[in-house]
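Reading group handout, session on sequence-to-structure problems. Before we discuss, look at one worked example. The prompt was deliberately terse, the way you'd type it at a terminal:

> structure plant cystathionine gamma-synthase

The input record follows.
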Amino acid sequence: MAVSSLHRVFTFECRSDPDFASLPSTENLRSTPRHFPAAGLSAAFYGVSSPILRFPPNFQRQLSTKARRNCSNIGVAQIVAASWSNEGAGSPAAGANPVPAVASAVDAATAPLPVDLGADDESVVDAGKNGAVQTNRSSYSSFLKTDASKTIHAAERLGRAIVTDAITTPVVNTSAYFFKKTADLIDYKEKRLASYEYGRYGNPTSTVLEEKLSELEGAESTVLLASGMCASIVLLMALIPAGGHLVTTTDCYRKTRVFIETVLPKMGITASVIDPADVGALESALEQNKVSLFFTESPTNPFLRCVDIKLVSELCHKNGALLCIDGTFATPLNQKALALGADLVMHSCTKYIGGHHDVIGGCISGSDKLISEIRILHHILGGVLNPNAAYLFIRGLKTLHLRVQQQNSTGMGMAKFLEAHPKVKRVYYPGLPSHPEHELAMRQMTGFGGVVSFEIDGDLETTIKFVDSLKIPYIAPSFGGCESIVDQPAILSYWDLPASERAKWKIYDNLVRFSFGIEDFEDLKADIVQALEVI
Ligand SMILES: Cc1ncc(COP(=O)(O)O)c(C=O)c1O
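And the output record:
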């Protein structure tokens, strides 16, 4: 063990990476503000987007000042040589006569650890206004121009501290972070030292995911939560005062509606519920109430209705209200809600972002100010995303652009095919000219996703027969993943209501929601053709 530790000290290299070499100067880093919301909240770091701040105690950390000079291209010019042993390089177990290179490396180990981001490490950390630690992300834009690149590299290739030789982001499974001495803790509290404190307030793996999502959404900040529902609930509770009013839409994820209708009233919060395209209804709701927030999906679940984000954001802002778009159906690729004027965009990451039907989570992106407000309540309520889940989302995001490209294409092809089929009564898909907001969708989206809702020409039983005849999709809730999924909303999401109640929400017995995965288009089409032949 000791020998391999020594070997590691000798050979640990700071690899140059020419394509990513043009880091901003320290001066630039200092002048570009980026906030680290408040003590105890998750940290953002100066040129180090997501450093792993602590190591297991048996890691020996050594900084080579020489290597440090040679490695400015990695932002935090640092070498962290890790030894899995408590036995130091000069210890008997390591060999009685270490060669000179070892000795110099050992000498260098007396340098302060850059991972501690201590006050003496000016190259990586500085206290901004109010002591906030700041970092720069604008430097990404020169070479990460497209979502395809951002999904893969944002928040990871620049400025992530090198901890191991791993290509992937380490999963930091810890519930708390230690301070070597009380003075460090006080420095942290007074914002002279950047660190994490407690797992509910932040985690290095999660920070990578937050920054990746911020890049994709063009947001200053992103907060992760344990589920999409958790995200909606914390957002609504954080931004609407007791006794306040919100506007929402008739078509939406049912549990969101249930929360708005049954839980928010306990805090005296009331809601106006409007048709997604009824701008007049929005205007009168804004005139007649002191509206804090218009909270709406776009596209909506399950009818894929679209809200004119630019127009409604202007109306909301004129009336002092915020706009939050639940962009779960759109993905962060097909629609840029913030650029269109929304104040916040949220996602059930469980769907396209994760993309593999194996993890649940939610996220909210927006300005530092609004996300800080939401974060404060989130840190109290505690619906935190597990770092293992964060890792799965980071991995899922790397293929988001490929999956969504395929799902956009399959969704569009299937919507057209289904609309032309005599056994299909109606198709709901924003890419179809027959969709009520087709022109709007063409303006504000670049693709329409893999979910197609449609009505079979038949009753409950006929529709069940169609669904049960399908061979490829799973009969299941959820959508947006690699595997195709089919469900009959009247049964899966609304079975507890009588048909008359379901009809209030246009959830008819013959409605099918089909989430196309990334299987071959022709296979999926052949499956639908044979299932339609059965009915
Ligand atoms: C549009 C939309 N928003 C939010 C949610 C809730 O997300 P989660 O299931 O991750 O809690 C869902 C769930 O299906 C959804 O469809």
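Points for discussion. First: Residues 227-229, 253, 297, 301, 326, 328, 348, 350, 360, 362 surround pyridoxal-5'-phosphate (CB under 6 Å). Second: Residues 11 and 81 are 9 Å apart (CA to CA).
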